[in-house]
């Protein structure tokens, strides 16, 4: 049904030839990894991850509920089911309860845009195998045949694009915990490939052709190598022939051994935050709820990261050349609960003042300052502008930066959100001390981190 080797269509090949383009990608990592990352992704810096599925119904423990309950039989999950559901209740019985009656895709898109995010990545299918669209390859285990009886992916895609400020990304799990064909292939030590051929790969082609995502976020290799998943052939098709071949970006989770080695951007591990500059573009995917990607009814207030922590994570990530993908987990009925919405809108408030130091920036020659802890740098080389974001307001009313090279009469320093230039004095051997305005709390341009903008500095 799908080619073992992705080839260019004759018309597309002709168009490339006429344009003088030699950008056909072969199904090898050397060729695929040579593809330049589309520029929009690096400029965006910040996206929202959304984990939603049947696991949102029990909403207990984590999105790995089925695995922990049935496979590992963890006592807390087993006890939860014994106390709350009949003895013969199966995980599949949760699907009709995945109702989404309060789901409003436009409201979601409005909240995500208000956060300052530039792209949204929705879980189309997690490891449980339930697809949020009416997949031809997931009969009766999808959101159109059961549960909400709606194409949730289409609703999100439509609302995201209509918003005008967001790009669409789709997450897809390669493997499924309990699918009989995957279990059969695993028992054969992946010498057979019944599952990817009949299920996983057809789904990938389906969502790309139907929804045209600009981020394709793969996950869940099931301990199988990329050859089993036929990942390189699929990616060659994606980069050469797909409807998003020019703009799509991909991550690094395409089989055992590919993470942090191959792909458009690296994720390396969940909540990856190296704290230093990497040679390859990377992404920090992390959760507002520290203990789960999916919604949890049993979450405590202390489980949710504060806005101060989230802003600091964004600043550190961008300073080190990464993008931040911040996760929320909606409820089974389609709500983004108030604490998630509050964090997203707070992030948007901060970016409304300081976004100039985040969007369209590059990593500078120094990531953080060595004189004053908690200061992170970005810059815009075209404008020869340096940004220094400090996470704590100094008690002495001034802040010292020892990395920038400044010159009297040329260097100007401003505070984003404050109109007047700031006074400063140079320090030896390099750097400067900046004298901050005296603010009351109500006069602060923002409340969680502040940005110094330096022009005419080296």
UniProtKB/TrEMBL annotation:
SUPFAM superfamilies: (Trans)glycosidases. It catalyses: a neolactoside IV(2)-alpha-Fuc-nLc4Cer(d18:1(4E)) + H2O = a neolactoside nLc4Cer(d18:1(4E)) + L-fucose; a neolactoside IV(2)-alpha-Fuc-nLc4Cer(d18:0) + H2O = a neolactoside nLc4Cer(d18:0) + L-fucose; an alpha-L-fucoside + H2O = L-fucose + an alcohol. The keyword Signal applies. Homotetramer. Its EC number is 3.2.1.51. Residues 367-455 form the Alpha-L-fucosidase C-terminal domain. Residues 1-23 form the signal peptide. It is an enzyme of class 3 (hydrolase). Residues 21-356 form the Glycoside hydrolase family 29 N-terminal domain. One of its GO terms (biological process) is glycoside catabolic process. It comes from the Eukaryota. Pfam families: Alpha_L_fucos (PF01120), Fucosidase_C (PF16757). SMART domains: Alpha_L_fucos. This is Alpha-L-fucosidase. One of its GO terms (cellular component) is lysosome. The lineage of its organism: Eukaryota, Metazoa, Chordata, Craniata, Vertebrata. The record marks 285 as: May be important for catalysis. PROSITE patterns: ALPHA_L_FUCOSIDASE, PROKAR_LIPOPROTEIN. Belongs to the glycosyl hydrolase 29 family. Alpha-L-fucosidase is responsible for hydrolyzing the alpha-1,6-linked fucose joined to the reducing-end N-acetylglucosamine of the carbohydrate moieties of glycoproteins. One of its GO terms (molecular function) is alpha-L-fucosidase activity.
